[in-house]
Amino acid sequence: MTHGKGREFKKLPVVPPENLKDGHFQLYLFESERAYSFAQELYEQFTKSDDTKTRNIAMGRFRRAVKWSGQFLSESQALHAIQPPRISSINLAEAVAYHLAIRGRFLRLQDEFQPGLEALVAARTVLDALSKAAGSSRDYAIYVQFSDEIAPEIRHCAHELGLARAYDIDGIVATLGSKVASALVKDYEQLLQGIQSEGAERQGGDKAKQLQEIIWEGQPIPVRSPELVDVLLRVQQASEGLPTTGQANIKPTQTRGLVTKFDGVLMALSEAEDVAKKLADAQKTTSNPPSGPGARDAHFISSFVTYQLLSRRTQRDLLLTEALLTTPTPTPGKQGEASQTVDYRVAPAVVKLLDTVLQSLNQMRSLSVVDESADLTMAIEGRLAFFLSKTYEPHNKYAEAVALTQRANLHLREAHTNFADTTESTPETAFYPLTLDSVKTLEQEVQNTETDLKKRWFAYNGGKTARNQHQKPVFFDIALNYIELPMEKLQEKAGVAPKAQPAKTSPAVEKRVLAERKAEPEPEEPTSNAQTSQGMLGSLLGGWWGRK
User: Fold this and answer.
1) Average pLDDT for residues 32-55, to the nearest whole number?
2) DSSP readout, 198-216?
3) Roughly what angle, to the nearest 10 degrees, separates helices 188-202 and 89-109?
4) What pLDDT, in 10s, does the model give residues 70-85?
5) CB-CB contact of 205 with 135 (8 Å)
6) How many Cα atoms within 13 Å fall on the side-chain side of residue 88?
7) Distances from the Cα of 58 to the Cα of 5, 171, 450, angstroms
8) Name one GO biological process term (predicted).
9) In angstroms, rounded to a whole number, what is the distance separating the alpha carbons of residues 372 and 360?
10) First and final CA of the chain: distance in angstroms?
11) Rg (CA), the chain
12) Fewer CB in a 10 Å sphere around the end CB: N or C, the chain?
């Protein structure tokens, strides 16, 4: 930077440590980051074009980044040396790790692999010490994320140096870490003791910032993204007070409050799912998976968060189902009828909820972290068919209802047979703890319902004969209008004697014979007068009147 007029460079006056403020450190950090990011862009252009000039400019920018980060570290050490120290040992260690990481990357790009490996290993050692002393889950995720970024560069330097176990990054850090850190970091032992003492004080801090350990199949899952830690902390806070299993004994008065809590958890999990998917897509584009034993990539974390979302949704739907089934009916049954334990309007709602549960289970099947559970799916399908049969009963469609109960029996029988190969319930399936006793109870309930439906079907006997709806005549009745059916002859051939029918006596009717009337010929009138009149008129009119 040039200050003053003209081209003459004027060096900045040295600021004493007592007058250093936050703005000075921010200026050093921003200058270092600007030079480092520009150097990375130039070096990427060099890898595509092979232009030596671009590489030289990139290396110059890297030197500036190393210079500014070194000045940032020296000022931090000056503040830490003041009594009492103005910055903590953890803050100084962060500045040390930042400077060593940039220096090691610069040396690696200059093909100086031995000093580059030492600087990167020292930075990784300091970051490991910081992660052990982290006071919150977010700080731990930040340290681990920086360690994951350094790990591939350590492997590259070790490979170029021809080390036998270049892939074992943790082994290299454990072997060379303390040695190179003591050589490159000023007062490393005192700094390490300060980190440990301050970390012990921060361990008992705010519990709201501590993310509980996530276990999957008996193994812990480290969350290595600060953004994901933030959303998972919201999920953890929203999940407080919720039942651990889907079949917990819950009072009907508590259902509304629990459903509200479940809605809050589902909202937080939806946000976590979006963040996890974005991280998975970013990792897919960079193709740089995290290293280290037990490290789970972003795709696994995304599948795990989706599984938690579906399990909580299933738990909420089952809670609503139990609340609907335990709700008492508002009106008692009539005399002579069996008392209804479930309102007929409840069955369609239960069917919709169980259908949503099946959709969630089918989505779980497609996840990479889930092994297919056939017994759980069959049990849900059996329960769905059972309640679907209850929707046909109010409409007197007993045939459909009995068919659905038989289908439910088949699903439950299949779930019953699959229990031979399963073990006890795991924490992953705690949202729906399926036991053999619950399947047997549901199977017995389905059988009792099927028997009751058959009895009602038999008593119904096709329904009422008198119906208001217009029915078309049977084809047999229509055929009698066009063909003759000799019932007497058919009965004789069958050996059935026809019943003797009494002769019908009809009243005598007096017949009257009317005398025939003969038409008398009418007398013909003389034509002489007509002819004379016609001749007289025709003579008067010119002779054309009366022509035929």
Assistant:
1) 90
2) HHHHHTTS-GGGPPPPPEE
3) 130
4) 999 998 888 888 878 8
5) yes
6) 13
7) 29, 32, 80
8) SRP-dependent cotranslational protein targeting to membrane
9) 13
10) 140
11) 48
12) C
Domain assignments of the chain as residue spans, ordered by start: 17-214+223-232, 241-327+343-460
Angle at alpha carbon of residue 228, lines to 200 and 238, rounded to 5°: 85
Distances (CA, A) of 493 to 35, 411, 415, 485, 490: 115, 54, 59, 14, 5
Angle (deg, nearest 10), helices 398-418 and 374-392: 170
- Which backbone phi and psi does 247 adopt, to 5 degrees? -115, 30
Q: pLDDT tens for residues 404-459?
A: 788 877 777 777 666 655 445 555 555 566 667 777 777 788 888 888 888 887 77
The tokens describing 12, both together, are 């900045």
For position 494, what pLDDT does the model report? 81
The sign one gets for the Cα dihedral 128, 133, 137, 139 is negative
* 6 Rama sector, left if φ>0, alpha if ψ -120 to 50, beta otherwise: left
Instruction: Write out pLDDT tens, residues 449-462.
Output: 888 888 887 777 65
- For tokens 């002393």, the residue is 133
DSSP lists the bridge partners of residue 215 as 220
Q: What is the amino acid identity at position 84?
A: P
Peptide bond into 486 cis (omega under 30): no
Cα–Cα distance measured from residue 95 to residue 76, given in angstroms and rounded to the nearest whole number: 7
Q: Is the dihedral of CA 209, 215, 220, 223 positive or negative?
A: negative
β partners of residue 216:
219
Contacts of 537 (CB under 8 A, 6+ apart): 545, 546
| Residue-by-residue DSSP string for 359-395 | HHHHHHHTSTT----HHHHHHHHHHHHHHHHHHHGGG
Helix (H) / strand (E) element for 130: namely helix 113-132
Bridge partners, residue 219, by sequence: 216
Which has the closest alpha carbon to 350: 317, 399, 301?
317
Q: Which residues share a beta bridge with 220?
A: 215
